[in-house]
Amino acid sequence: xxxxxxxxxxxxxxxxxxxxxxxxxxxxxxxxxxxxxxxxxxxxxxxxxxxxxxxxxxxxxxxxxxxxxxxxxxxxxxxxxxxxxxxxxxxxxxxxxxxxxxxxxxxxxxxxxxxxxxxxxxxxxxxxxxxxxxxxxxxxxxxxxxxxxxxxxxxxxxxxxxxxxxxxxxxxxxxxxxxxxxxxxxxxxxxxxxxxxxxxxxxxxxxxxxxxxxxxxxxxxxxxxxxxxxxxxxxxxxxxxxxxxxxxxxxxxxxxxxxxxxxxxxxxxxxxxxxxxxxxxxxxxxxxxxxxxxxxxxxxxxxxxxxxxxxxxxxxxxxxxxxxxxxxxxxxxxxxxxxxx
Length: 341
Known about the structure:
Blueprint: E1 2-6, H1 15-26, E2 31-36, H2 38-46, E3 59-63, H3 74-80, H4 85-94, E4 100-103, H5 107-118, E5 128-134, E6 139-143, H6 153-169, E7 178-181, H7 192-202, E8 208-212, E9 224-226, H8 229-256, H9 264-277, E10 285-289, E11 294-298, H10 304-319, H11 322-340
Parallel strand pairs: 1-2, 1-4, 2-3, 4-11, 6-9, 7-8, 7-9
Antiparallel strand pairs: 5-6, 5-10, 10-11
Helix pairs in contact: 1-10, 3-5, 4-5, 6-7, 6-11
């Protein structure tokens, strides 16, 4: 697979992005296109020459003369900076020169560039930003988690279809359990959007298990959580805050009770497991589902490990034909919906 990486995207770029690309290339047969200012990227790449045999790695630099900052207005930046590292990545996929692109940069700009250059898949009403969320045993996917604050019921159904396919094709979950985020498990609970969405989701071929309350999401009762972007983003940010609070409370507890340090060697493995559970770098990045090409968006604070894993996520989605699978599923769903009408 050929993966275009926005080498200038993220708070730690190009240091983390270049090293992450080197690690990904070393651990796989994927070709990595490092997109950014050629001279700067070449200098950064040479820093790894002594540690890694760069001649054996399939890495190529693609020059891009502009960079979109994390705080720039997304749509405006994409219109004005057509030779930015992010825009060039999207164009490489659109032109068939790369199988996927990955960026740890400005999320809004990554979405805007995908819509501008890749376009929406035919029949998809709105693309969804779908993120991974830790549960007690594994992970679940929340779709949408911020791309669409205001939605219609049909949008939520499509989010469920696309996220379910991602879980199946990329995460290896054979029959993903799809649930609708609501204020109660009962079919009759929820606002107008959730009630109408529930009725439509029941008519699909998805493994729809009904409504799910917030407390049951971290318990791992579903693999896909369908929601509008407003609700999904609240769930995500609240979960991140709880995870950070728990880790802080553990640290505070040790400081408050010095004798507790005696037990630290016995607890360290459990603490490491907890940190790993809430560590976003393990899955690297999240997909923008519904655009006609693979786009993986990572956290702005991504380190080399997150970059490497985001590259692997993009490669796996491309290898397993995710985009065509979504095209077929959406076309089938839309045809069935028209028949019902």
